[in-house]
Amino acid sequence: MPNHLADAISPYLRSHAGNPVNWFGWCAEAFAEARERDVPVLVSIGYSTCHWCHVMARESFSDPVIAEYLNAHFVSIKVDREEHPDVDASYLAAASAFTDGLGWPLNVFVTPHGQAFHAGTYFPPVGQPGRPSFRDVLTAVTDAWLTRRDDVTAGAARVAEMLVESGRQLTAATGSTSGGAAVAFAQPSAEALDRAVTELVGYEDALFGGFGGAPKFPVAPALSFLLGHGALVADGPNLALRTLKFMGESPLRDSIEGGFFRYAVNRDWSDPHYERMLYDNAQLLGLYTRAWMMTGQAWARQVAEGIAGFLCTVLQLPSGGFASAQDSESTVEGERVEGGYYALDASERLRQTPPALDEKVLTGWNGLAIQSLARAGFAFDRPDLIAAARRAAEYLHQHHERADGSLVRASVANQAAADQAAADQTSTARSSSARATLEDYGMYSRGLLELALVTGDVTYATQARHLLDSTLLDTTDTVVFRPPHGPDPVLSAQGLVSAVDSSEGAYPSGLSATAEAALLLHRLTGDDRYRRAAQAGLAVVAALAPQRPLAFGAALRLFDDLSTPIEQLVIVSRDPSDENAATATPHPVTLLDLARRHSAGVVASIFEVQARAFADAGFDLFEARTAPSGQPTAYLCRDFVCQLPVTEPAELPPRAATADRMVRIVAERQHLGTATTH
């Protein structure tokens, strides 16, 4: 029986098109068929670079006997978690009621109305101690459905209600909004943030770096929080730098192509799982760039530029967009193996076909890459990296921005139409029907803002503002950010949509990503509604984040940013065509050199004509920013109050955030009666 996956956008789904299982993609029609046949639904969730997903596909989903049983007793749905992160998050939450060992493949058994009643991960074809065979699981689920239906549906309803109640509790007591204004929104105190750092210090593996034992993940959001936290009682930045140095010298990093693998099985970072993810490498590029900006040490720059090279030469597609991942498996000397390609030296690799790319272009993850490449290109004076970021932004602008203002979640190149498209300048991409999520709007907006700052092109900033504005709700509800065209319609019809998904995992949540973009917009425009929106959005995790710092690193970093004075640095130069532009006095270190490593929250280097364009577009930070003497001129501002402009590098002071934190903490300790979250 043919299934429904042959024309799927997702390469992961297309890899199952040849299965004898009658797979549906994620759609309402599958649940309608289940209701008509009165059978349960198997929702099987994975992704293209998941090793055990491949294993289960070979062992079970390719087995005609198992497929025959599935087709007779279930409706089967295959989901790419990267294409449908909201579906994955919903069923992960439900699966936690049935199993502790969550991961992928995630196999969830649900009623025809979408409510989960049993779940598990990888099931072998033959039972093992403590792990039943997949066929045994299918038989048991079928028996429960046929003989204990009332118990099954009642239990599924309880799980669904538990998830709804959990969402209510998360958004309760966080404050309220009125016309976009925030009232008494919760925020962790400086001491609570310090305790979060102290807890992370306690998790450190002093021998091999990283946190805890095995397995080990990069946990980039937590490292980002540590790198920017100048604490009195805990050494956050040094902990982050130690961890980054350990990782850069470890087997987790491919020393030939420069990219990082997803995680390591062992405590010493050895035996990696060899998939290489766009989101990991984009975030790590940002972290190693910041490490170099802070220390000037060669190891940080070497690793950063290695990651950038991997992104631009391996993951960037001819279209300009970035593939979401590279597989862990490949064929080496005729044998399909995991990691074998990465054991080869550079000359041996040229003879082998590299692991396949998941060529699915995801809006949010591409936003992460755009942000990090733009900042790295500026910091390292690498115009080629900025050009790579611009190519990705142009691809998203052309293929992921719809006429109605909504975003496309994912696309793949339509190679069959490429030649004709080149002739008539039409689109060469196929778009997913999946709804763009909040992470797409937040990460893409943030990437565009960074690109605007390093190129001086205001159109990127205006587009970012437009996208972010579309997510803002003018409401009395506690949820202030929302995808403008609503949640996934199938989940919504089943009542399985969470009001806010604050989970971060390996990269920032949609909430954190959108709040970060809003904070940066506030620093560029002076419009306080963006700061208030960020505060209101983050308030839902104000109590939880400091208690679970490994799981909420991005939110903690934003709480840190909200509690310290804003610093903005703008370097303005005369326009290149201006005959009155003066030649700068020769210095071993120029203003631009200092700007490349300055730690202000906003750093921009632009021409006068670009500053005027920003100011005219409502970005007040650039109002009246000129180079009156004809030489490059620096404006260093704090909370939009700027010092006198300077033209000499020696006159530009470094950031004094640590001193500010000390003053703030002392003030808090003198006002213990102030309501804060601890």
Determine the mean pLDDT: 89
As a whole number of angstroms, the C-alpha radius of gyration is 26 Å
**Low-pLDDT regions:** 175-183, 416-425, 657-666, 668-678
Number of strands: 21
Strand order of the largest sheet: 1-3-2-4-5
Specify the number of helices. 25
Structural class: alpha+beta
Strand content: 5-15%
Helix proportion: 40-55%
Major sheet characteristics: 5 strands, mixed
- Terminal Cα separation, in Å? 58 Å
**What is the overall shape?**
globular
Could you give a short description of this structure?
Helix content is 45%, strand content 12%.
General description of the model:
The chain is built from 25 helices and 21 strands. The protein has 678 residues and is an alpha+beta fold. The strands form 7 sheets. The chain has a 5-stranded mixed sheet with strand order 1-3-2-4-5, with helices on both faces. The chain has a 4-stranded mixed sheet with strand order 19-18-20-21, sandwiched between helices. The chain has a 3-stranded antiparallel sheet with strand order 10-11-14. Helix 4 (64-73) packs parallel to helix 6, helix 11 packs antiparallel against helix 12 (298-315) and helix 17 (438-455) packs antiparallel against helix 18. 51% of the residues are buried.
